[in-house]
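User: Earlier you gave me the apo prediction for this protein. Now I'd like the version with 2-acetamido-2-deoxy-beta-D-glucopyranose bound, so I can compare the two side by side. Same sequence as before, with the ligand SMILES added.
Assistant: Got it. Here's the input I'm using:
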Amino acid sequence: MASVFKNLSFSSSVIPCIVPIFFSCFFIVSHSEYLSLTTSLPSSTTKISNVSDGGEWVLLHKSIGVSAMHMQLLKNDKVIIFDWTDMGPSNLSLPDGAACRHYLFHNRTINDCTAHSLIYDLATDTSRPLFVASETWCSSGALDANGALVQTGGYGDNGIRRIRTFSPCDDDSCQWVELPTNLSDRRWYASNQILPDGRVIVVGGRKAFTYEFYPKKNDESYDKLFYFRFLAETNDQGEENNLYPFLHLLPDGNLFIFANNRSILFDHSNNRIVKELPGMPVAVKRNYPSTGSSVLLPLKMNGVLSGSGLPEVEILICGGALPGAFNSSKNKIHVGASNSCGRIKLSDPHPKWVMEEMPMPRVMSDMLLLPTGDVIIINGASNGTAGWDAAENPVFNPVLYRTYESDPDRRFVVLNPSSIPRMYHSAAILVPDGKILVGGSNPHNEYNFRRAFPTDLSLQAFHPPYLGSLFAPLRPSILSVETRDDTVSYGQEFSVTFVLSVYRADPLISVALVTPSFTTHSFAMNQRMVVLDVALLEHLSTTAYKITAYGPPKNTVAPPGYYLLFLVHAGTPSHGVWVRVQ
Ligand SMILES: *[C@@H]1O[C@H](CO)[C@@H](O)[C@H](O)[C@H]1NC(C)=O
Ligand SMILES: *[C@@H]1O[C@H](CO)[C@@H](O)[C@H](O)[C@H]1NC(C)=O
Ligand SMILES: *[C@@H]1O[C@H](CO)[C@@H](O)[C@H](O)[C@H]1NC(C)=O
Ligand SMILES: *[C@@H]1O[C@H](CO)[C@@H](O)[C@H](O)[C@H]1NC(C)=O
Ligand SMILES: *[C@@H]1O[C@H](CO)[C@@H](O)[C@H](O)[C@H]1NC(C)=O
Ligand SMILES: *[C@@H]1O[C@H](CO)[C@@H](O)[C@H](O)[C@H]1NC(C)=O
Ligand SMILES: *[C@@H]1O[C@H](CO)[C@@H](O)[C@H](O)[C@H]1NC(C)=O
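And here is the structure of the complex with 2-acetamido-2-deoxy-beta-D-glucopyranose:
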């Protein structure tokens, strides 16, 4: 931690104030209370522990009318949520006179005048139904550099090659836009990643062993497509196990791609595999339908700007299913999922997987980066695979993976359980106040509320432990972000003014940028966290401070777009504020 702040210098006014601040700290939250929160760890003999505050579940809405299969937070604190369009009506009406869709379903003509998408406003806790014209089932997405959602693929003639966009607006005028141009290949279960040049790469999909870019370059034909043998090779007979491949943009500009049980470093500009990484030492399938999840762990600058090197890069992949699990599920035998995680440091000259074990087996769990740099593993089941009625034994407890805990036996912390199963087609995203928005499960064929794992239309928020009241005095509160041209520019200084009632000098305050992910099928596409170098911390008045940080060094580290900026103080994140990086 200290090395992050090696360039840190204090203005002369800060030192004399530390004593009075600690003194007041004693009254607000006693030091021992604070320590017991942050260090109440399992004894070395138990692997699983409960923290004194294991987080809290809040039911926001019993029904939002659609099942949250896909979720994306936009730069105006609104969340776009949608399921599919050709599987029967939803529980959400469209306003009078809005368009209806007519299609054949089980030999019946359906006149569906319901909404299959909505925009949920976090600030007012209200939502507005949206009409989506084409079939979005198992599609993919990414925000572009302007903060508009580029949403690709789906199902059937009416969806599989579609490109839709949604641009955030401050009033109620914005709607889905269906583009006249189509994708070059059929994309059902593909993954997207925004690239340093602001374009989006779309990789894979069922029977689509290819990738392509959106938008195409000027000199490229509209149907330009790249064959990708790696996807053909990782496609298991009858089970696939390589859909929704895990994609992460690395700081050197290459992509990390994981499909089934193999992973590569890929130079997408030259259509070239740079390196195949070793296999994990356990025979587990990680991608749909053996759905595990994957995160690019926080990229910590650690003086990268002054040093000129690139940050260390680590990937964490958890959960999945054993070979044959999907076949078994078709016969109603739901075999136990995997409890294994693999973590690999790609910046090592000879990277290798280091295996860890979660407290319980999991498939179909979402993995989200928290502003603290820890990972929350949430939703999913302990038996079976993704797919319709292919799982049993929901996992109600989220698990915290403490990224920087050096003792592997203390890395996982089991958090408080929900009471709502979040099985196939559930989703979760991080929102600006540090909560996790959770929804969706089993839309089934037409909505079905009587099945064992019924269609779920509810929306919940999980409050991670850092939102507990004991942490409140430690929480920084951002007053303003001072940048040139409203932009955090690559390598340039900018400042954040904030207030803080109890200042603890160690660990110091970090400045983190987090991208809002497009989450579906347990994979948070485009999820990324960059921990910036800090130049200066100034003490302005009793509780006011100003921190000056350097923007990310370059667009391969942080592709252009809108990020949530969090200050993290003593394990406690501020509310995130939006900044534009370019
Ligand atoms: C965690 O808490 C639950 C519920 O309070 C309890 O059943 C379980 O035994 C606890 N686990 C540990 C390791 O203390
Ligand atoms: C959805 O609508 C159906 C039919 O009107 C109703 O039976 C069901 O209770 C509703 N479900 C929810 C979760 O609102
Ligand atoms: C639809 O109708 C055809 C011809 O009548 C029949 O063969 C088929 O089984 C029906 N499909 C469904 C899903 O009912
Ligand atoms: C794109 O796909 C739609 C739906 O399949 C089709 O109607 C349309 O003609 C296609 N557009 C182009 C430019 O090929
Ligand atoms: C990956 O899966 C393939 C196909 O099932 C299998 O042949 C291979 O041994 C597996 N490799 C590893 C590293 O698990
Ligand atoms: C799954 O079933 C298909 C046939 O449906 C078969 O070809 C394949 O070998 C099976 N895979 C495994 C891993 O059992
Ligand atoms: C879950 O998997 C375990 C281990 O394979 C098995 O013992 C158990 O019966 C399964 N449970 C269900 C509900 O399928």
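For your comparison, keep in mind: Residues 14-28 form the longest helix (15 residues).
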